[in-house]
Amino acid sequence: MSDFEPDPRLVDDSYPVTELPLCQLRLMDDARFPWLVLIPRRLEVSEVFQLDAPAQQQLWREASAVGRAMLDALGGDKLNIASLGNVVAQLHVHVIVRRREDAAWPAPVWGHGQAEGYDLDRLADMRARILAEVEGLDLASHEG
Predict the structure, then answer these.
(1) Residue 1 located in a structural domain
(2) In a domain? residue 40
(3) Assign residue 98 a region: left if phi > 0, alpha if psi is -120 to 50, beta otherwise?
(4) 28: domain range?
(5) Going residue by residue through the chain (144 aa), what tens digit of pLDDT does each one get?
(6) Which EC number applies (predicted)?
(7) Residue 143 is assigned to a structural domain of this protein
């Protein structure tokens, strides 16, 4: 979908990582948490139910596989997968590896404290780690 553009607020708060079959994968600019965002490349979609059934399944496949890979690679106590959209209506799914010792535990990460942006070296390292984990995943659509 060549006309697809992520909401400017998502662009301002995150870095592009890669394109998955359905979603653009981005890294949130808060180094306190391993925090990814998946944005389905669909125009004017704000709710999961607005996607057709195969796209809904693909969204869940991508979020689950990316989340599991990141939890396994980075270690953590819990994986949070959520779609809120109260501030940014464009459909997007947060995938966050949580640790009992993280800055917000056990509360949600949203609105907790001040974000700590990535410096260039740490950003490059995290993007490389994410790409290495995502590269081996079977994310192809399994439509029948």
Answers:
(1) no
(2) yes
(3) beta
(4) 8-135
(5) 458 999 999 999 999 999 999 999 999 999 999 999 999 999 999 999 999 999 999 999 999 999 999 999 999 999 999 999 889 999 999 999 999 999 999 999 988 889 999 999 999 999 999 999 999 898 987 554
(6) 2.1.1.-
(7) no
Q: How many angstroms separate the CA atoms of 81 and 104, rounded?
A: 16
- Check: CB of residue 104 under 8 Å from CB of residue 112: yes
Give pLDDT, residue 52: 97
User: Number of folded domains in the chain?
Assistant: 1
Residue 135 CB contacts under 8 Å (≥ 6 apart), including other chains? none
Through-space distance between the first and last CA atoms of the chain, rounded to whole angstroms: 22
| Residue 95 belongs to domain with CATH number | 3.30.428.10
Is residue 92 in a domain? yes
